[in-house]
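for the writeup, i need someone to sanity check this before i put it in the appendix. the sequnce is what the collaborator sent (i think, or maybe the updated version? ugh). structure was predicted straight from it, no edits. if anything looks off just tell me and ill rerun, i have time this weekend
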Amino acid sequence: LSPLLFSQCFSTLVSYTLPFFILLVILLSYLYSLSSHFLYIIIFFFFLMIRRPPRSTLSSSSAASDVYKRQACALSKRSNQVRMLCAAAAKPAKMKQVDIYRYDPDSNSGPTMQTYQVNLSECGPMTLDLLLKIKNEQDSTLTLRRSCREGICGSCAMNINGRNTLACLDKIEDSEKPMKVYPLPHMFVVKDLVPDMSNFYAQYKSVEPWLQADAKMNNGEPVSIDGPAPYGVEHHQTIEDRKKLDGMYECILCACCSTSCPSYWWNADRYLGPAVLMQAFRWIEDSRDGQTAKRMAKLDDPFKLYRCHTIMNCTKTCPKHLNPAKAIAGIKLKLANAH
């Protein structure tokens, strides 16, 4: 008989016999004229024996309790897994046809469209979830860019159902129409859904997208590396001047706007495009920058800037809901006032 089981049996037995024991002690004290102090001592030791089982019994009880907890936890997990599997099995299959642009530069064949069937009942709500499901379960050769899955990095920009957007922010349409997925239009394709962004990044670099202040670092004094501000002097900016940058600094350089612009399709080698021009205007508007005149002079070009014909595709397609067309108009206005 284990100590734990003995303790449980003893406690049960005592709980039923305790009233009779107390009556017996009172009766004996009445018959033999025992003192009340002696009666109290007997009852105290009896309760002490009930409330404090042996130390081995306590340790065994604790170990058994831990075992019971672990078993209950494992059983709960298995129950949750079974419940989830049953719920997934209960959902009817909801198939979606997906046509994806495929191109492999290592093969002799040209670009093709490949069709996949995906069960949306077993897929996440976004297009990126769908593409990753195809890559993981059907075709591991499918190539695409993705990183943050939160619309911050801009890596998964592509053309989905005729619209440039981010796959991680594009919700799968609940319709029977086939989904069509292409890389960003009018760009060289590295492979499948991966465009060559070299020209886009070179154009971005050409506008020198960093702060160029007239003031010398640390007012010309030797730079100290001690303290929280190693350059000694901060570039202060008013709240009003800071608000001028709203709607421009949020750009994630996904190139959705530039590749939706017909002017950029025709003159991508010379026209900078909406995304790069908006970033150029972001530094022109920055009150802390000291090279505004130089920046504007570099943009005063019939192809770099004035190929924009205000088609507004850029503003319509931006997945971050920014307005590149407004920024381009701001550059044109500043140049017009400067002439």
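The beta strands are 95-102, 112-119, 157-160, 163-166, 179-182, 189-191, 194-195. The longest helix spans residues 55-90.
thx in advance!!
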